[in-house]
Amino acid sequence: MSLLIKKVPQITSSVHYLQERNIEQCIIFIHQHYQEDLSLADIASFCHLSIGYLGKIFKSSLSVSPYEYLIQYRINQSLTLLAHPQNNITEVALQVGFNSVSPYIQAFKKYIHITPKQYQKELFKQ
User: Fold this and answer.
1) Residues 24-71: pLDDT tens digits?
2) Cα(18)–Cα(16) distance, rounded to whole angstroms?
3) pLDDT-derived band of residue 126, with 50, 70 and 90 as boundaries?
4) Cα separation of 74 and 66, whole Å?
5) Is 51 exposed, middle or buried (0-12, 13-18, 19+ CB in 10 A)?
6) Do the beta carbons of residue 50 and residue 65 sit within 8 Å?
7) Angle, nearest 10°, between helix axes 101-112 and 66-82?
8) pTM listed for this prediction
């Protein structure tokens, strides 16, 4: 019994390492495919995880769900595109993986606290 107790830290360390590797794989996949119509099932399948387990390890390690991470990454990528005055909001939304402009504007406002148009206006008035 004491031998098993001694191995608990080693087992726990191995579990954390595997979770970190799984998250790393998922993040790489998201970064490579964020412009596509991605689902949680797509991400989980690529990483050979269940959707539930994927959500659990993301929440415990990154404090966000995989879907929230994807949306935040898309919003972050859109900031660069919005920095070009020739890019309109609809084009940017589609380029970063949103199916339409409305969910993009809602997500942008949630994370950046202003609309994409307001963001662009602020950028170009300087």
Assistant:
1) 999 999 999 999 999 999 999 999 999 999 999 999 989 999 999 999
2) 5
3) low
4) 12
5) middle
6) no
7) 90
8) 0.85
